[in-house]
Amino acid sequence: MNTTTRIIIASCILTLFMLLSNSAINIILAYPIIANPNTNTNTNTSHGQVILVPVNTGNLKLDHDMHSFYSCIKKTIKESKPTDLSEYNYFATEPTKAEVNNCYHNVFG
Fold first, then answer.
1. What letter would DSSP give residue 81?
2. 3-state class (DSSP) for residue 78
3. pTM over 0.85
4. Is the Cβ–Cβ distance between 58 and 100 less than 8 Å?
5. CA distance linking residue 17 with residue 6, whole number of Å
6. Which tens digit of pLDDT belongs to each residue from 76-91?
7. How many CB atoms lie within 10 A of CB 103?
8. Which residue, among 109, 82, 108, has the nearest Cα to 95 in the 3D structure?
9. Domain layout of the chain by residue ranges
10. Within 10 Å of residue 6's Cβ, how many Cβ atoms?
11. How many angstroms from the chain centroid is the CA of residue 91?
């Protein structure tokens, strides 16, 4: 057997070993999910609106402007009309990026 043949055989064996070990790792990692498919993998714990605490930065103008900014967003959400009412529309309860930008520029200039 010449050197080239030995290198090709060694490469094939190494590749096979890497494929088998990767498959074994994937099976080990997937086993808890397969064993208990009812496990909730969603770690999102949001359950509604976040209550805003009063802002007290020590700067009365900034405190007032922040209150105005959040009031603007709240008003914008109430006034916006979602175009797709056939299913849940995220932007029926949350502002769009454009709405946040408009409120920011209206309040903070």
1. -
2. helix
3. no
4. no
5. 16
6. 888 876 666 655 667 6
7. 20
8. 82
9. 1-43, 60-108
10. 10
11. 16
